[in-house]
Design goal:
Blueprint (H helix, E strand, L loop, with lengths): L1 H28 L3 H12 L9 E6 L4 E6 H12 L6 H21 L6 E2 L10 H8 L3 H14 L3 E5 L2 E2 L4 E2 L9 H5 L21 E7 H8 L8 E3 L1 E5 L5 E6 L2 E4 H8 L6 E6 L2 E7 L7 E2 H9 L4 H8 L4 E4 L6
Helix pairs in contact: 3-4, 3-6, 4-6, 4-10, 4-11
Length: 326
């Protein structure tokens, strides 16, 4: 009898252990993809250290070269180039792009060359300048920007083993652009991709009015006297911007029109209204590489900085800065 009781107790204990396991295991084997993604982000975000190098920065205000540590330089660039209110993953993508740009500059620059602090290279502002600009929000914004830089420390973008030229801009017209459509030279990783997130950008659609005399003077043409559409779009680029535009009997490239009239984008249309010309543009910037508002839209959908970068720069790889600069 005692033996029977012991056997029954043993069976009861075994069942009590096995049944919960049968209930739990099938679910624990099936991982939530969102949880997996967050864990992957956390693993990628482990803080490393950038090389202890100094960046020579030509300050346009003083016309003097400031020598800035790489970390401080990247913080100043990310803070100046992308709104601090953007999602962290978008800011991290910007940090990696900025690090790649300056690494490429340092390798290819000649002795005595300094990187500018303007859009000719990358916009850079010092902490003192940012504090003045941000006021009471400085600490909060600086913490977020610093986190983006530190969580991506040591990471750069490469294509077939070489550092890329990480072109970026504010807002697309719904598509990014092929490099050759703007710069006349194809770049394998700078190809047109859809970027529908940009429609939420405050810079997506804009209109300006210019005097007829100004448009005629800058383009060297005579506009039709009657009100209505001005010029004819002859062709478009892969990124849906104006490739060729005929106005006043002269054919221009879309880039020429954009630069001569200082337009936000090469995706435009014109209309004469009396003595003025209304010009409506879609997007803001040259359109090549990473769209910043597109990056933020992707980040809001849960995409990682790596997802963002590999979408806008085709075929690239995240690599170590230490492979290029010690």
């Amino acid at each position: 009898m005692k033996r029977t009781i012991l056997v029954f107790i043993a069976l009861f204990v075994a069942v009590a252990i096995v049944i919960p396991a049968l209930i739990v295991l099938p679910f624990s084997e099936h991982k939530n993809p969102e949880t997996t993604k967050v864990l992957a982000k956390t693993k990628k975000s482990q803080v490393k250290h950038d090389p202890d190098i100094t960046i020579p920065v030509m300050r346009h205000a003083t016309k003097k070269v400031a020598h800035v540590g790489l970390r401080d330089y990247l913080i100043g660039v990310v803070a100046s180039e992308m709104p601090a209110k953007f999602e962290l993953e978008a800011l991290k993508a910007q940090a990696i792009a900025a690090r790649t740009y300056i690494a490429r500059f340092m390798i290819t620059a000649g002795a005595g060359d300094a990187v500018s602090d303007t859009p000719d290279d990358q916009v850079y502002e010092s902490r003192a300048e940012l504090k003045k600009a941000w006021g009471s929000t400085y600490s909060e914004k600086m913490k977020k920007i610093t986190e983006a830089v530190d969580q991506t420390a040591g990471l750069v973008l490469t294509y077939k083993g070489d550092l890329i030229s990480p072109s970026f801009f504010s807002t697309s017209n719904g598509y990014t652009e092929n490099a050759e459509a703007y710069w006349q030279k194809p770049v394998p990783y700078l190809k047109s991709v859809k970027s529908t997130w940009d429609e939420s950008s405050p810079k997506f659609l804009r209109s300006v009015e210019k005097p007829v005399s100004e448009v005629e003077g800058k383009l060297g043409v005579n506009l039709p006297r009657q009100n209505g559409t001005v010029g004819t779009i002859l062709s478009r680029t892969p990124g849906k911007r104006v490739a060729e535009f005929k106005i006043g009997g002269v054919v221009f490239t879309g880039r020429e029109i954009r630069e001569k009239l200082n337009l936000y984008s090469a995706d435009f249309k014109m209309e004469r209204i009396g003595s003025r010309v209304k010009i409506t543009t879609k997007g803001y910037g040259h359109g090549i590489g990473m769209s910043q508002y597109g990056a933020n839209g992707m980040a809001k959908e849960g995409k990682s900085c790596e997802d963002i970068l590999k979408y806008y720069y085709r075929g690239v790889t995240l690599s170590k800065l230490s492979d290029f600069i010690k």
